[in-house]
């Protein structure tokens, strides 16, 4: 029962991780630059994401521009696009597989099949967490290195946006969920190996008859 509740908790974490990965992939605020200027009316917030660049004015106007050209983008943005999409796909596969393999569901057949499905779903979550953690770390490193570069003007410097933090948290949720699913299955298999089922040996009737026959001969 404790293992089933732990798997359910890991499943909830994985759901938050999936939604967080999807949101981080689509949000345009991977890096943010606020240019107040000399007047508060001309304040501008520039946001750059994986798929579009947006500008938010203090008057309430909002405009976005899609990034159509892939080859013109920096390498870390291209890598972030690929890895985040892979993270979303793997985490979605993990949700489907663990739904079958969880102990609190009636899907998946016998216990061994459900155990293997849970382990496979945990591996998907771990891979999705790694794929989601790599681009966020790389993107953050590029932002910090550009921010500390003295040759870059202040107007071109950015800070990490909310999508980066969402990606970090989602990757952590997926990693924790994957470790819980894999460790629960491993503990169960290990307990089966350490404590094998007891085998009861009963004397055969043939031996009893032979023993009785030999006693009659000696009477």
Summarize the structure.
Keywords: Cell junction, Cell membrane, Membrane, Signal, Tight junction, Transmembrane, Transmembrane helix. With 219 residues, the protein is α+β, with helices and mostly antiparallel strands. It is 62% helix and 11% strand.
CATH class category name of the domain at 4-27 and 74-194: Mainly Alpha
List low-pLDDT spans.
189-195, 204-209, 215-219
**CATH architecture call of the domain at 4-27 and 74-194:** Up-down Bundle
CATH third-tier fold name of the domain at 4-27 and 74-194? Butyryl-CoA Dehydrogenase, subunit A, domain 3
Mean pLDDT score, rounded?
A: 80
Write structural notes for this entry.
- It is a multi-pass membrane protein.
- One of its GO terms (cellular component) is plasma membrane.
- Keywords: Cell junction, Cell membrane, Membrane, Signal, Tight junction, Transmembrane, Transmembrane helix.
- InterPro entries: Claudin, Claudin_CS, PMP22/EMP/MP20/Claudin.
- With 219 residues, this protein is α+β, with helices and mostly antiparallel strands.
- The chain has a domain at 4-27 and 74-194: Up-down Bundle (Butyryl-CoA Dehydrogenase, subunit A, domain 3), CATH 1.20.140.
- It contains five helices and five strands, in the order αββββααβαα.
- The protein is elongated, with a radius of gyration of 29 Å.
């Amino acid at each position: 029962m404790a293992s089933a509740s732990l798997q359910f908790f890991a499943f909830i974490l994985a759901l938050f991780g999936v939604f967080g990965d999807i949101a981080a992939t689509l949000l345009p605020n991977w890096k943010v630059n606020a240019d107040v200027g000399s007047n508060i009316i001309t304040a501008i917030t520039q946001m750059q994401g994986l798929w579009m660049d947006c500008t938010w004015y203090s008057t309430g106007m909002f405009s976005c521009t899609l990034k159509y050209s892939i080859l013109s983008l920096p390498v870390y943005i291209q890598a972030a696009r690929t890895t985040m999409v892979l993270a979303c796909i793997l985490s979605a596969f993990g949700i489907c597989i663990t739904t079958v393999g969880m102990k609190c569901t009636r899907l998946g057949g016998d216990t061994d099949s459900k155990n293997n499905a849970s382990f496979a779903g945990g591996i998907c979550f771990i891979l999705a967490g790694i794929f989601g953690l790599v681009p966020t770390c790389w993107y953050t490193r590029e932002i910090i290195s550009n921010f500390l570069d003295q040759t870059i003007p202040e107007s071109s410097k950015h800070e990490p946006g909310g999508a980066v933090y969402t990606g970090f948290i989602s990757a952590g949720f997926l990693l924790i969920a994957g470790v819980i699913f894999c460790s629960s299955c491993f503990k169960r298999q290990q307990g089966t190996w350490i404590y094998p089922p007891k085998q009861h040996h009963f004397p055969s009737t043939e031996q009893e008859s032979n023993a009785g026959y030999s006693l009659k001969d000696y009477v």
